[in-house]
Amino acid sequence: MSILKPGKLPPQLLQRLLMSYTRGGPRVIVGPAVGEDAAIIDMGDRYLIAKSDPITFATDAIGYYAVVVNANDIATRGGRPKWFLATLLLPERTTSVALVESIFAQMAEACKSFGIALVGGHTEVTYGLDRPILSGHMLGEVDPRGLITTSGAQIGDVLLLTKGICVEGTAIIAREREQELRRSDVPERLIQRAKSFLFEPGISVVRDAHIAIGAGRVHAMHDPTEGGLAMAVHELATAAQVGIVIEANQIPILEEAALLCAAYGLDPLGTIASGALLIATPPEDALRIQQALQVENIGCAAIGRVVPPSEGVLLDDGSKLQPLPQFIRDEITKLFTE
Known about the structure:
Blueprint: H1 11-21, E1 28-30, E2 39-42, E3 47-55, H2 62-75, E4 80-91, H3 97-114, E5 117-126, E6 133-142, E7 158-162, H4 167-176, H5 178-183, H6 188-195, H7 206-215, E8 220-222, H8 228-240, E9 243-247, H9 255-263, E10 278-281, H10 283-295, E11 300-307, E12 313-316, E13 321-323, H11 334-337
Helix pairs in contact: 2-3, 2-7, 4-6, 4-9, 7-10
């Protein structure tokens, strides 16, 4: 019996489990599927968007992370995040009242900044844990006419990417390995700048999504998280049953991300990437969306195109086409398991 390594489940296994054990219902518009960011439930004149996502890598600012990454997946559906629930599991030997209060304060501040209500959840000190784990559950709403799904990408679409990679991974490296980086003579300015990536350019894509929707036709959006940009592209292709060609030279890799990933031997393509947003849009709308984002100081690059599924999911390095790698195990796990 094979033992699974830390990280996402292999896509084929997840696909089989979802097909075998999940069932929809007459009011389930979008249920569980590889690549789909959140469930959609028909509530009459509105659709309810439901999302659950844990924070398992980061410990510093974990409350903020949990709210934002769950809000992101509401925004990728074209909706607005409204209500947040948190299941907070705390380590048995190191949990203090100050730690618990700090995490609650982080959640409250993040909820306030996005107009979200913290409405419930569960908190406990848990046997066997050596670090906090926070599983967030976000609910939001969307007008049925404004619903966007990952499966909506169409052949011929341009694939846009906001900000660059890998915002979240860079913040985690700097926050989890700050002293180690300092001892390695990494410039203090770079360390502090990387730590601030959590807020600037930020791991939220809520504004990115709303600006894009207001500027042009958006067929699909997807939020790269574990497994980085590479896995997000594969997930989008799976959900939409299309092929995708990514142009390697067009992928914006943030300077701090490149330096810190290199310091730990991480591939930026496969490093956790919240903060970037993938947008599939018709070619005639792509420039308008890019310009609208850039007016708001959000970078946006055209990094690829949606092609027939027979072409596969490919990386074009300018001289040859090769399969885009998959990172079932996020590169950031090397910081915690090696």
